[in-house]
Fold this protein.
Amino acid sequence: MSDVVRLTLVSHGMTDAMAAGRFPADEPLNDHGRAQLADTQVGAGHAVCGPELRARQSAETLGLAPTVDARLADLDCGRWRGETLDRIAPDELALWLTDPASAPHGGETVVDVVGRIRDWLASLPAGSGRTVAVTHPAVVRAAVVVALDAPPSAFWRVDVEPGTRTVLHGRGSVWKLRLTQ
């Protein structure tokens, strides 16, 4: 059996909060989000997902029966949950977007989420076959940052659309990003 870990990360489908530019809470998928995932092919494999409703519903829409893994939870935006960008103090938002070690919202820092996902990736057993992880754009961003061995400051430079797939292959502590269409 190969010692390569094959991981497909699926970003959950669109929600009303995303469409309105609100920070996420625990909202469901909207109709557009379900439609985004309707034709997505993820292949067979062990399935995991984040604990939030939108991740669980996305996995269900994909026909998966995942195990919920709290380590795949969305970046915790603290007191900004449910708020629109125009309700956030501009200096706090600028700090959060430029300093990955800051959390002016009282939640999780970018450094924290990158570390959490680095640890999760390291825990995936070699030779376990394919894993499908249905999660959040922030988690996918963090996984790409880890795979590229980029600094946490690169986090906001990775654009992850709802309902998209990102494929990583890992061997030991080395990850490769596999670009697909």
Q: What stands out?
A: The mean pLDDT is 94. The helical segments are 16-20, 31-38, 53-61, 90-98, 110-123, 137-147. The first helix runs from residue 16 to 20. The two ends are 27 Å apart (CA to CA).
